[in-house]
Amino acid sequence: MSAFYCHMKYYFLPLVVLVSFFANSAYSQGNVLEDRETLIDLLGNSLACRLSEELLIDLEREPLYAFDGGNCSTVVDIASQESATTIFADAQCQTPVSFSPMPQQTFCTLALDEQLLGDGGGLSRTAGHPEWTLSPGTRFDLGSASLRGLSQPYLQRVNYKQIETAEGTCNLEMRIYKNSIAETGLKPMVALHGGSWRARGFGFLGLEMTVPQFSAQGYVVFAPFYRLIDDKEAVPACHNATIAEVREDAADALQWVIENAATYGASDYPTVFGQSAGAHLATSLAVDFPEQIANAVLFYPPTDFSDFGLRVQDGRYTNEEGLGILEAVLGVPAVDIDLSQSPIPENTFPIQVLENPARYPPMFILHGLADELVEATQSTRLCGALAGDIESVPDREVWLQQSGLRDIVGCDQRSSQLHLIREGDHALDVCVSGNVLLQDLCLAGSVASRTLVADSVASAREWASSVATTRAEQREALLLEQQAAEAAAADLLLQQMSEAASQQTNDNVLVDSTESAVADSATMVTENSRSGGSGSISMTGVMFALFLLLCRLHCAHGFHALRNFQYTGKYD
Predict the structure, then answer these.
(1) Radius of gyration over every alpha carbon of the chain, rounded to an integer in angstroms
(2) Residue 369 near residue 420, CB atoms below 8 Å
(3) CA 505 to CA 559: how far, in whole Å?
(4) 534: Cβ contacts below 8 Å, ≥ 6 apart
(5) pLDDT bracket for residue 539 (50, 70, 90)
(6) Cα dihedral 249/253/258/264 (nearest 10)
(7) Quick check: 299 pLDDT over 60?
(8) Helices 305-313 and 320-330, interaxial angle, to 10°?
(9) Residue 535, Cβ neighbours under 10 Å: how many?
(10) How many CA atoms, within 13 angstroms, populate the side-chain half-sphere of residue 334?
(11) In this predicted structure, what is the pLDDT of residue 525?
(12) 381: part of which helix (H) or strand (E)?
């Protein structure tokens, strides 16, 4: 029996882990797995789901707390809780949260159900609600960069958007991951899954097992789902979206994160991250909202629909899966592509970036030269656009003639960079080693190549955090400079107003003294006239005094008019 179990384990494990890759990517892998429904039924089996636990690794997690005998104490094994429990996120037991476990069977059901995954129906629409859990998906150590030594983040699920369509209400889920529920001073990241804009399964699995890489760098990771351009997954109300509507969902997710990041202890502008189609959406956010984005991390992104179309037209691009995806996005056969028609121009990001490269946030791009689905030229052109000259970075064919396993290209003076992996295929950051399967399934290539991919992934996460922090400091310094300049201008204005008020007082005193002198002269003349004396005060003196009064009054009004013109631009 034990021998049978061991034998079956090595056949079930690749199915459990890679089912969505083969099934949801059946457009390109249909010759490997033809009976998709049979596999889905098989993977619903509790034994297969239990066996997939062999792929999970133990990760440390930040403690939660509960009252024990009147004292606030650490909950030793929160993952073993069997039901929802009220506990606390802080060591003082001041921040209550509700923790509900996510057993492996629940995770498998949720991940493999085509309509449940990403459906926000039934989830709270309130950001920061107290319910948290732990997803087994963040413990799958199936990336080129290992999760060992990292922490498992906690998970909260929210309904961030509802759309009324002809098929009903499409509810979209947002998943929020953070290492410590109570921690503040973190950075936000919007992470978008791949799947050719028409699938969620493997794309989201690949995204979720990458989350710990970024939460370890002080990020709160916000992972939204979006509508799909196909009708194979999600509820019918979320089917058959246009690429513009998919981008609209990504934009709404970004705004939701900006509005609610502080609720989760994050501040400043978000980093955007994506893989494949998710990287396209991340690029669209960086291009559409450059003032709201800190930086972008893009893994094998399709960024240039015009270049895709040109390569299709001249016969350089022949990948069948890619042609099928392009036709689904454009709604016309590949041979009928019109490069001037929507949605091609608005999804040709290098041309848009080229108009003013300094306007856009720094970007870290990772791409495999062996990728025939999304060719690396899509990334070289974006890197060139950031440099101010699209053709300044050689395309894929030139790089393939080089002998090295990895090339790193600096795209601009703001730290944007492109990592090209010679042996890397599409999804090169996924790597299931031979100690798990009967043979390696590592899309990064050879052992030497996967080491370089792991290094590039590590570099991406460190780059993202460092650049986001630097740009936040630069914005803070600029804000302080602006505030100092405004304060100096206000001080100068107050000084000028004070001087003007002082001058007005002096003018008034002068007028008052002149009026007094004239009045005294007039009194003396009157008295002298009544007494019949000749006196020393003549009418000439009185007239002179009156003249002096009029002169002073005129001068005082002139000073006042001049100051009024200085401040308002108008004479009074």
Answers:
(1) 35
(2) yes
(3) 12
(4) 528
(5) low
(6) 170
(7) yes
(8) 120
(9) 13
(10) 20
(11) 52
(12) helix 377-387
Rounded CA gap, 252 and 403, in Å? 44
Q: What are phi and psi of 151, to 5 degrees?
A: -110, 150
CB 97 within 8 A of CB 64: yes
Per-residue pLDDT tens digits for 59-97: 999 999 998 878 999 987 777 766 666 789 999 999 999
What are φ and ψ of residue 402, in 5° steps? -80, 160
Tokens 């509508």 belong to residue:
227
Greatest Cα pair distance, the chain, in angstroms, is: 146
Q: How far is the CA of 335 from the CAs of 313, 317, 378, in angstroms?
A: 7, 12, 20
- DSSP 8-state symbol, 529: H
For 14, the enclosing helix (H) or strand (E) is helix 2-24
Best CA proximity match to 148, nearest among 191, 204, 212, 103: 212
Sign of CA dihedral 310, 314, 317, 323: positive
pLDDT tens for 91-135 read 999 999 999 889 888 888 888 788 999 999 999 999 998 899 999
3-state SS record for 506-523: HHHHHHHHHHHHHHHHHH
Put residue 427 in one of left, alpha, beta given phi > 0 → left and psi -120 to 50 → alpha.
left
The pairing of strands 65-68 and 71-74 is antiparallel
Strands 187-192 and 154-165, bridge-based pairing: unpaired
What is the token pair recorded at 197? 């804009």
| Residues of the chain by 3-state class (helix, strand, coil), percent to 5 | 50, 15, 35
| Distant-in-sequence, close-in-space partners of 124: CB < 8 Å, separation ≥ 6 | 131, 158, 159
Closest CA to 292 of 190, 192, 371, 223: 190
